[in-house]
Amino acid sequence: MNRALARLIAGQVCVHASMAGMRLAAPLLALREGYSAAAVGLLVALFALTQVFLALPAGRYADRRGLKRPVGYSVAVACVGAGLAVVFPTFPVLCVSALMTGAAAGLATIAVQRHAGRAVHDATELKQVFSWLSIGPAVSNFIGPFCAGLAIDHAGGAAGSLEGYRAAFVLLALLPLLSWLCVRGTQELPSVAAATGGPPQRAWDLLNDPPFRRLLIVNWLISSCWDVHAFAVPLLGHERGLSAAVIGTIFGAFAIAATVIRVLMPFVAERLRERGVMAGAMLVTAVLFGAYPLLDSAFAMGVCSVLLGFALGTGQPMVMSLLHQITPSHRQGEALGLRLMAINASSVLMPLLFGSAGAVIGVSGLFWAVGATGLGGARLAWRIGGEKPEKAHGPQ
After folding, report:
1. pLDDT for 351
2. What whole-number distance in Å separates Cα of residue 75 and Cα of residue 77?
3. C-alpha angle 191/193/199, rounded to 5°?
4. 178 to each of 79, 169, 171, how far by Cα in Å?
5. Residues 6 or more apart whose Cβ sits within 8 Å of residue 332
6. Whole-angstrom Cα distance, residue 151 to residue 147?
7. pTM (two decimals)
8. Disulfide check for 25: which of 148, 153, 196, 382 has CB 3.0–4.6 Å away?
9. Successive 10-residue mean pLDDT values, the chain, 396 residues
10. Contact predicate 247/233, CB 8 Å
């Protein structure tokens, strides 16, 4: 990993960590103030909601303006969003902060991913770069909540005091400034103009391209499997009589495995083929989802969780690599926006669907139903098609 890529990853981490920290601190403060679980659920959903509606405009803006201006706006929006919570730590303002920090994280992610994908020279480098980049969210999801939690517990006169929450919001407002320090020295890549004379292009036209459409569906299936694991494992663990600490350990094993596989992938990227890796990941996930509800011991569930982490952890780097190969260079920001919109819409809606389905068919049935979709996902991944090197090569 070179220095320029390390700065990009650090820049993405700092903005995303601000949002992740707010996603911990804001709901905790709302609960402290006596708001209901439904209100807190709405607050959490707002972090993803702005990304659903702003992802496409953000992608188009990144196509026009490159890296630094979108990241600069992201930093400003994240700082103001978290700063508002410092001055006015009330529920309505926390909702605004959630919308703003969520939007900032989405715009920064699209700009960084687009720049990184265009800065490489071949398909192998694409897989290496996006394997490294995919580690960033895992790091930020640790740093943001960890720092916010420390501030809440230790910065005020007593653990959980309003002063502690304000200190956490101050920290989360300053954190995005580090992102600008990381990316301000990055050299912008030449812009790519669309061919003139043709009909106006719309983002939805990308969905008419079968490889892109299949890739988006496979990406959604991978994300849904990730969400099902997060949603159903606590329910299954509760049915098995496992303690909260044990369930948390099972989750931790999954996250560690997903991170480890992404750290290892750059070293074997030359041997990996995107559609083969994605198809294999979906097949393995289908088998493991079929077995998960049959397991009784915490150890067996932990092993299954680790194997799932290995399988699902390979998904995002391969999706991002293939997306940059099958998408025209001047529309990669739009393509990334469509992808982010689909994932965040799923994050908002799927838990509601999982809850309804789980009430009807049970937790085991939920695992088996989603596992069955993995079989179709494997077939779809294999049909995405091969590489298009002319769209994958370097700064364009």
Report:
1. 63
2. 6
3. 155
4. 11, 15, 11
5. 63, 114, 117, 118, 323, 324
6. 6
7. 0.78
8. 148
9. 83 91 89 83 83 85 87 94 94 94 91 85 81 84 86 82 91 93 82 53 73 88 82 78 78 84 85 86 91 87 91 87 82 83 75 66 80 85 60 41
10. yes
Q: What is the residue type of 223?
A: S
Question: What does R_g of the chain's alpha carbons equal in angstroms?
Answer: 21
* Residues 265 and 344 sit within 8 Å (Cβ to Cβ): no
CA distance 372 to 290: 8
What was the pLDDT predicted at 390?
40
Tokens for 252, please give them. 């931790």
What is the C-alpha separation between 273 and 231, in angstroms, rounded?
30
Q: Which residues contact 272 (CB under 8 A, 6 or more apart)?
A: 127, 265, 318
Q: What share of residues in the chain are helix, strand, coil (percent, to 5)?
A: 85, 0, 15
